[in-house]
Each structure stands twice: as C-alpha cells, then as structure tokens.
Amino acid sequence: MSELHFPWMETSILVPLIGAIWMQLRGETASAIKGTIAICAVTFLLTVAELVDFVLLNSFEAHEHWPFMNTIFNNEIFVVDELSAFLLPLGALIFLVTVMSTLRTKTPRFSMKWALISEALVLATFSCRASWTLVILLSISTIPPYLELKRRHRCTRIYNLHMAFFVGLLLIGYAWLSFVDAKSSAALIPGALLSGAALLRSGIIPFHLWMADLYEKGTFGSALLFTTPLVGAYAVMRLVLPIAPSWALHAIAILSLITAVYAGGMALVQKEARRMFCYLLLSQSSLVLVGLELVTPIGLTGALCLWISVGLALTGFGITLRCIEARISRVSLADFHGLYRQMPIFAGFFLLTGLASIGFPATVGFVGMELLIEGAVHIYPLVGTMVVLAAALNGIVVLWAYFRIFTGRHNRTLIPMQARVTERIAILMLTLLILGGGLVPQPGVASRYHAAKELMRLRQSNPITKDIEELSEEHHHAPSEHKQE
Amino acid sequence: MSWLDSTFYILGTAVVASPAILLALLGLSTLVGRPLSEASTSRLTQAAVLFSLIPALGILVLMLTFGIRYVPVELGNWVNIPEQEFHFHLKFVFDRLSIPFLLLSCILCGVVGEFTRRYLHREEGYGRFFLFYAVFFCGMVISSLAGTIETLFLGWEMVGLSSALLVAYFHERENPVRNGQRVWSIYRLSDAAFLIAAITMHHLTGEGDFGGLMSSGVWPAGTSAINASQALLVGSLLLVAVAGKSALFPFSGWLPRAMEGPTPSSAIFYGALSVHLGVYLLLRVSPILESSFTLKIMVIVLGIISATCGALMSRVQSDIKVSLAYASLTQVGIIVVEIGLGLRYLALIHILGHASLRTMQLLRAPTLLRDYNELENQMGSRLPQRKSIWSRMVPGSVKKWLYRFGFDRGFMDVALDKWVVQPFISLFRWFDRLEHRTTDIISKESSRESDNIDLHPESTGRAA
To answer: What is the C-alpha separation between B417 and B424, in angstroms, rounded?
Structure first.
C-alpha cells in the first residue's frame, strides 16, 4: 500500500480536537468564532493537502506516513482511498463554511467546542474503512447532538430512540459479522442488521422522524453538521456494500427511492423553512443512496458525484437559510417576506445552491444526476422515472422557497441585513466550487468513476455479491446489442 | 480539415460562445457584487446578439453558396466515460430546421433587448432582467442548435428557469411571483417528461445524437430508429413535454399569466419565442411521429383541442395581452396539427411568420389601445361591431356557455388545481399530520415547536 508524505489525516483530526480543548480552557466567548474559523481553515487545508498528496501518488489507497495511531494500536486505522479522499475535504469544508456563517449572537446556542469535536469525529470516520474503529466512531458521533438537545432542555426521546436503535444494530451487526465468514450466506443476517443501522442513520422512511425532529429542536448549525456530510451513506458504502447481495441492495434502493419522492412531496407542504430544508436534504441524500445501491459502474459514479454535489450545494443552501434565520428568526413559508432588497447576495446564493442541489445545468450536480438516472434506467426503467420525479418535485420546492423568502412584497428594514465578510467568503468559496465543478466536470467524474470501478472490484471478490456484476455487465452491453440488431 | 470546415467551426463556435460569454460576464459581475452600468449591460447585450446573429448568417450564406444542408459543429465531450459508452457530447447542428429558428431567436431577443433598454431605464431590476435575459438567450441558442438530446435538454432547462424568473420579474408583488411559480411547476413537469423520454430513447437506441435517433438522413429526411410501440411511448412523453413548454391543452394557463412581467419584453419572450420551443422539439423529432399512427393522431387531436380552446378564449378576454396570448395558442395549436399531418416545412414557415407577426402585435398593443380610445372619443360613440355568422347560428345558451368557458380560460387551471394539485397536497398534508401525531406520541408532548414559534417577524420594528 502506498504511503502519504505526511500524516495528514491524523493531523487534520488532531487539530480540531486540540482546538476543542483550547476552547474548553478558554471558554466559548463571542470572540471564539475567529479562533474556530482559523482552526477549521487549517483543518480544511490539511485535508486538501491530503487529497493533493493522494492524487499525486496515483494509487487506489494509501496509509499515513509516521502512523502514530498504528504504533499505539498496532493496527492500520486510518487509510485513505479514492472513495474517501474527496470526502475528507468535503467534510472539512462543510464545517468551515458553517462556522464562518455563524453570527456572534449565536455563540450561546451553537457550541464551537462541540462543532470542533464533531468535525474531528467526521474526519476520523471518513478516514476509516470497515472496522471496529468505524463502528465506534459512528456510534460516538451521535453524542454531540444529544448533548446539545439536553443543554437546550428539549425532548430527546425521538432522537434517543432512533440513535439507540442505530447504535444497537450497528454494534450487534458488526459483532455478528466478526464471528461469521463475510463471504458466506451466514453474513446475510448481520448484513441486514448493518443495513438497518445505515438506513436509520440516513433517515430512510419510516426511520426519518429523528431528522425532522433534530432540525426542529436542535440548532440549525448542529443539525446541518450532523446531516450534510452524509455519514449514513458512508456507512452503507463501507459496511453494507461489500457484503450485501444484489437483491438486498436493490430492495434498499427502492426504499431510498420511495424516500426521495416522499420527502420531495413533504418538502412542498411544509410551512417552515427548516423543515422544508430537512425534507429537501432527505430527498436528495436518498438519491445518493439509490445510486450507491444500484451498484452499476454508472450508477455508482453518479451517486459518488451526487454525494459531492449534495454536500456542497445543500450545505450552501442550508447556511443561507441559517443566515436569514439568524437575522429574522424562524422563517415561515406560509407567506411572502420580500427580503431580496435587503439581502441580494443571499438571494442569489440561495437560488444557485438550491438549483445546484437539484442538478441544474452548469452546476456541480448536473452530471451526477444524469449519470444516476442513466444508471437507474439500466436496472429498472421505472426507477429512473422516479428519480426524475423526485428531482422535479425538489426543483419546485427550491423556487417556491426562493419566492416565499425573497419576493412577494415590499419589505423595508432600517437595519443592515447584508452578508458579513466571513459569510461572503464562505458563499464565494462554495459558489466557485459549485460552478467550477459544473462547468468542468470531467476530472471529478473520471476520478469518481475510477473509485466506483474499484468498489465494484472489491464486491467481485465476495462470492455472495458477485451476481450483480454479471447483471451490470449484461445491462452494460444491452444498448450496444440493441444497436447491432 | 478544409478551410470551409474550419470556417464553419469558427463561426459555429462564435454563435454558441457569444451568449455564453454574455451570461458569464453579467453573472460574474453580479456574483462579486460589482454590477455593470446600464450602458455597459446594454452594449454587451447588443454585442452578444450581433456576434451570434452575424456568424449564423455567415453560415447560412456559406451553406447556400456551397449547397451544404448539414453542418455539425462538435465542441468535444463535456463528460466522457469511454468504458461505459457514456458521453455528454457537445454537438451543435446547423440545418434547415435549426438555422431559421436560431435566426428568429437572435432577432427577437435583439428586439426585446433594444426595447427593454429604454423602458427599464433607471429601474432597480435592470441588471437582474438582463441577467435572466442572458440565461434565456443562451438557452434559446443552445436549444435551437442542439445536435444531441442532452444538449437540447440543457438549453431547455435554461429557458425554463429564466422564463419563470422573468415572469416573476416584478417580484415585490405577489401576483407575478405566483405566476412565476406556476410557470416553473409546469415547466418542471414537462422537463421531467422530456428527460424520461430522452433517457428512454437513449436506452432504446444507445444514441443521444439526433442523427442516430433518426437513423439516417438530415432533417426532415430522417427515419425513426425505433419501432411503432417504442415511438408511441417516447412520443407520448415528448408530447407532455411539448404541451407544457408550448402551453398546449391542458397547460395553457401559464401563458396568459406570463404576460404580467415587464411587457412587452416578456410578452415577446413567451408569446413569440418560448411558446414555440415545444413545437420546435416536435419538429426536431418529427420522424418519430411517422413511426406510429396512434401518436400522429394524438398530436393532431392535441393541436385541434388547443387551437379551438385558444380561439374561444382569445375572443372573450378583457385584457389585450391575454387575448394575444390565447391567439398565439390558437396558432401554436394549428402548427401542432400541421406537424401531426407531416407538413414540416409549412409548420416551420408558420412558426417564423407567426412569431414575427405576434411580436409586432405585442409591441403595438399598448399604443393600439390608446389609438382605439382616441378614435372612439372623436366619434363620440363605440366603433361598430360586425356580427359574425356564428353569432346568429349558435343558440343563446350555447353562446353563454362558450363565453363562460372562454372567459374562465377553459377552467383548465381550476381543473388542474382541483384534480392534480389538491389531491397531491392533501395526501402529503395527511402524511405530515400522521408524522406529527407519531412524533407527539413518542415525545409524549407537542413535538413540533415551529408551530408555536412566532415565525417570520420581519417587519421593521421586530427584525433582529
């Protein structure tokens, strides 16, 4: 296995952890935001450096240089591969822009310390492959939102119930899997338990209630940080995909598809912006799962592209909504607010990120959606149709929310509501990535395709997952055969 | 590559690049918070239209001179996965269908730009209008020249978004915004139908290229590469897409609603350009219609219904723009019938003639009303109305019903709201209530805090 030139992963995990300790000692004052932004920026740069280093190695996977953790635990804990290499900077960017868009008035509610701990956990999760470490990290990462809900004296029953099931299924499933041969049919039951855990964490219906509840009761920032990195999809990719037979994955894909359409419809009837965002995120993230579980090279590539797109675009959409909420309190969608004149930059960015999230042309999600639909049609034509339907519903939701928030009335405020400098920088960074990835998609798509192929190759090594490859081969050749006829 | 091919390539690239550059310039200046002045915006727009129009005319002259009927301009693959035979091919085609439509788009967009420059002078939304205008223009050029179904979809989406945003241009009033939302909703459904049709075609033929889909020959000589039942499936989906985009029955409601934007610009956009994009698609895929008799009948019936409804409605509307919008619908319906009957050249000429005539009418409409008023004032009475033969032949009760039918715009929006939107919304509201109850039971308390929070206190005194 190749070796990175510097322990980027361990350092990028340590930096926010040290930052959290510093925050604990120093106290979370209003001025702590600047320090947190600096820590998140350094972490982001480290993950970008890790990505560059990894790309230059031209290898499928690589481990750390001077692996400190490996020396302690005598085990290969942090390994980066083509699947996770892009997710690490994406995860770090989500935290950076969320912290950058936090107003000083929000510090009593939005804990910087826990945000940094969550960042370390997300980065550690994305640096891990299927192992006990990953299972433990996934379990621990459920704690920060719980503590926040407790601190805010909100009811935690819904969250606790779902997360307890998630952790339980995860631990039992992985423990069971450790005792059986993962390449035999004995892995089916633990595989099902792990699938259940991943579906719970991803918010697939009927296990999605915790997500809307978290957006309802938690701070918007924490809810964003817990949901937008799509850790549930990562769990599917690492724990379920290598062992689940094709029929099981297709069944999960259908469930994800139902979620995508259902959440798109639910987003349309919400009267409050946060809830609308929650269902929009649920719908689009379910589409990522649909692609992952189709396990065809095209479908997988589409899912991996869409993953990046959803991470970037919906984080942007979310932080815009959060910035508006920070200024005018919770936003109703039952009537018009006419905020365009007060915040034209936010309006433009809201529209851009919203459209990017539904895969509008020339944005980062467009090619991902095309690939996903193409891949879905190859498995079941109806699945492709449903994906298009979900995207159409989400498109209607995005413009509806835009019109409700920014237009419809003449609204005057005496106080400035323009974007601050840090907010503008966050917006500009995301905009460049969204438009850059949309206008020059080939490098990203090629890299994701290579990753998808490796994932397929890994599945081929397991006898119980082999049939899908044959199926995908058949489907892959179908159009050319048709042409010959 | 011969000098002729090189010339075609350079001119063709200029046609497509010009609106894209305009969009990039206007978009970037807005993005960095440094909007261009009115004069710069206007000059850039004029230049972009000219740099699209003149090379297009150059290509036309060269094609006529050398007797060439088909000029593909390949800009390479935007995305390419060779192993999976997946590619997003940027191919633009100049042929007997695309060139007239492209010239029409350039000229009408130029006219709109020129008129808007004056009457939006010193308006707050001047820059915003021209940004959306650039998206629209870019979308129209890409759609007109698209050589692959994916490229056509790209332009189609751009036209859809810009149309919705332009309809909602006066965005400090509720009505234009609601109209914009309705236009967008119908466009999204038609986009979805188009995308499914595109993917189905791709799946059936393994081709995204129109040349491949039509198996042989350039427009209009191609023959379909799919059989009758496949053509019926794909054609039906395309017909939904066309009906949405061209405001055919039962989606006609968006066209009069779209007329509330910054007239006469929007009126020209929708009444003369956007409304023809759907039938342009039908013309482009017309060889598919030939494969299925049932599909042809469907197209003809749809055209007849739309034309009849449009004729009835246009006669009884009280607003001149709405009346002209329905008159447009009548003509578009007739064009659809022509396409269904296989009269492709006639349909193309009809599109060009109708778009030009309608543009002139829409530009003249406000002054016509004033002239009409002055004339009646000078006469001291109403202008004499000539009764048609129908008014004597049709019974009174039928006339009353037809009047109501026309005046209420065929009850189409009401029917769509009642039979499509409301059941959908009711179903999901029921799901929402179910979720609410479930979370209440689990929480053992009221779980939806947003119900109790005072939402949107955005009025001046309360904003934080």
So the answer is: 10
Q: Select the more confidently predicted residue: B217 or A303.
A: A303
Bridge partners (DSSP) listed for residue B94: B71
| B81, two tokens | 């996965």
- Identify the sign of the CA torsion A77, A78, A82, A88: positive
3-class SS of residue A419:
coil
Domains contained in chain B, number: 2
Within a domain: A54: yes
Phi-psi region at A419: left, alpha or beta (left = phi > 0; alpha = psi -120 to 50): beta
Q: Do A399 and B442 touch (CB under 8 A)?
A: no
Q: Is A169 helix (H, G, I), strand (E, B) or coil?
A: helix
Is the CB of A165 inside 8 Å of chain B's CB atoms? no
User: What counts of helices (H) and strands (E) characterise chain B?
Assistant: 19, 2
Integer Cα distance of B180 and B169 in angstroms: 8
Rounded distance between C-alpha atoms, residue B237 and residue B254, angstroms: 20
- Rounded to a whole number of angstroms, the CA Rg of chain A reads 21
Query: How many Å apart are CA A349 and CA A344, to the nearest integer?
Result: 9
Whole-angstrom distance, CA of residue A166 vs CA of residue A207: 10
My answer on whether A175 and A292 are in the same domain is no
Q: Which residues of A touch B31 (CB under 8 A)?
A: 348, 428, 431
Domain shared by A111 and A260, yes or no: no
Are B155 and B247 members of one domain?
yes
Amino acid at A38: A
* B144-183 tens-digit pLDDT: 999 888 888 889 999 999 999 999 999 889 999 999 999 9
- A96 and A135, same domain (yes or no): no
Beta-carbon separation of B206 and A483 below 8 A: yes
Distance CA A213, CA B87 (A): 42
> In the 8-state DSSP scheme, what is residue B37?
P
* Residues A169, A284 share a domain: no
From chain A residues 311-330, the ones with a CB under 8 A of any chain B CB are: 327-330
Q: Which residue of A has its CA nearest to B448?
A: A216
The CA distance from A351 to A339, in Å, is: 13
- What was the ipTM of the complex prediction? 0.91
Residues in chain A: 485
Q: How far is B171 from chain A (nearest CA, A)?
A: 5
Structural domain boundaries enclosing B424: 412-448
Nearest to A430 by CA among A49, A13, A100, A8: A100
Q: Is A485 part of a structural domain of the chain?
A: no
Structure token pair of residue B17: 């690049």
Instruction: List C-alpha distances in Å: A98 to A47, A210, A323, A431.
Output: 17, 21, 10, 14
- Give the DSSP per-residue string, A12-29: HHHHHHHHHHHHHHH---
Q: How many domains does chain A have?
A: 3
Residues contacting residue A112 through CB under 8 Å, at least 6 positions apart: A23, A28, A32, A33, A35, A36, A99
Q: For residues A81 and A14, state if they share a domain.
A: yes
A338, A411 Cβ separation under 8 angstroms: yes
Beta strands at B86-94 and B71-81: parallel, antiparallel or unpaired: antiparallel
- Say if residue A228 is exposed, middle or buried (CB neighbours under 10 Å; 0-12, 13-18, 19+): buried
Confidence of residue B54 (pLDDT cuts 50, 70, 90): very high
Token pair of A348, please? 């433009």
Q: In the prediction, which pLDDT does A420 show? A: 87
A222 and A253 together in one domain: no
- Asked whether the whole model's pTM tops 0.90, one would answer yes
Domain carrying residue A299: 245-480
Over the stretch A222-276, which tens digit does the pLDDT of each residue have? 999 999 999 999 999 999 988 888 888 888 888 999 999 999 999 999 999 999 9
As a whole number of angstroms, the distance between CA A152 and CA A177 comes to 38
Same domain, B16 and B109: yes
Note the pLDDT of residue B456: 57
